[in-house]
Amino acid sequence: MLVQASSRPPASAHIVVLGNEKGGAGKSTLAMHVAVALLNLGQRVATVDLDLRQKSLTCYIENRRAWAKRSGLALILPEHHCVPRGTTQKLDENETIEFSGFVDILTMVEETHNFIVVDTAGSDNHLTRLAHSMANTLITPLNDSFVDFSVLGNVDPETYSVTGESHYARMVREARQQRRMADGALLDWVVVRNRVSSLESRNMQRIARSLGELSARLGFRVAEPLGDRVIFREFFPRGITALDKLDEKTLTARLALSHAMARKELMSLLATLKLPIDERAQQRAAARAEWNAVRGQPLDVCDVIGDETAPSQQSA
Q1: 138-149 pLDDT, tens per residue?
Q2: What separation, in Å, do the N-terminal and C-terminal C-alpha atoms of the chain show?
């Protein structure tokens, strides 16, 4: 199963947050892939960019829109929103403006969409904390190094065993407590190692072991790792993803094995997330995809009017 299907749509949108206080971990790329995967399943998806300075997710979606227009491809797009940045001379006023902007967006889309995918900045700020406290599912991509691991936990330099939790882990713990106190809901936290080398190394083994140990302490789930693939960086200028229909028209290059492997890894991640999919919308999307796949094919005349030689053979 790719997702956890539900015959009844949720009362309000399921919020998926991509979070990590360290920049460059792949949050925006994963946010885009999760959004496209859900759109492919017929879900109504809104995306929100909380990285008010870099706006990587916003740029990704704008690139996708521009490439669809230029190439003539029918690339599906989420309903995207970017929180307006406060521009006053006072920090507290700016935070109030941005806080209100985010809440207004959520209020506007939560009853009309199945999912809201939120991309956060690589820093601890008021919007990041608010997003984490509202999340139903939190995805934390983590580059395969102890530099990135340090945002979650600390390790003994000799044994590499976990000695304690770090600043981002403490922030997520607080967000979980706030969510539980607000409505009793549990935040499902999934950590995924990103840009993992294809060559096994002692460092990879140590990180995997330390992550498993920290998972037991903090209560997050660990997804299968995502490989270090250049294609993800190649996708960005055109706004495409490994979950789109990839062919030479889409890529303007021959389809490579790395594309298929990337798609397989992302499908595995989505299965791990177990998101609550609206089953009826999924069935409608599957029917549309089947129709689109055959609409350009000519009708088989024999299937329509039958075999004209059969009656004469029978009479003979």
Answers
A1: 999 999 999 999
A2: 55
Q: Over the stretch 76-85, which tens digit does the pLDDT of each residue have?
A: 999 999 999 9
Contact assessment for residue 43 and residue 278, using Cβ atoms and an 8 Å cutoff: yes
pLDDT at position 255: 66
Residue 44 identity (one-letter amino acid): R
Sorted by where each starts, the structural domains of the chain and their CATH numbers stand as 4-315 (3.40.50.300)
The letter for the amino acid at 231 is I
**Which conformational region is residue 216 in: left (phi greater than 0), alpha (psi within -120 to 50 degrees), or beta?**
alpha
Q: How many CB atoms lie within 10 A of CB 289?
A: 12
pTM of the prediction? 0.86
Query: Which run of H or E residues covers position 80?
Result: strand 79-82
DSSP secondary structure letters along 274-313: T-EEEHHHHHHHHHHHHHHHHTTSPP-HHHHH--THHHHH
**299's tokens:** 């009708």
Residue 223 and residue 190 in contact, taking contact as beta carbons nearer than 8 Å: yes
